[in-house]
Please model this.
Amino acid sequence: KLLVVDLDSQQTTARIDVGDGPDVLAYDTGLHRLYVASESGVVSVLDVQGKALHELAKGRLADGAHTVTVDQGTHRVYFPLENVNGKPVLRVMEPAK
Model:
């Protein structure tokens, strides 16, 4: 689960189901999207509006897809994968327009 915490009140305001073992977050400041990569290979895409988060998509990308980064200029999302059929692979997602 991803917990949303209000830093002013120090209270948990939401709990969002994401993949098992969420460990890396990347935020696209232009599109207001939060990408949550998990040890399980599941990636969640959340829309950020103020203090609220809404799930846009969630799916299994690949084993070990738990590292993510966003190019703030192009809005492309990058997932380096250590081992896909014995070779390293870089998966790139283009955001929907």
The radius of gyration is 14 Å.
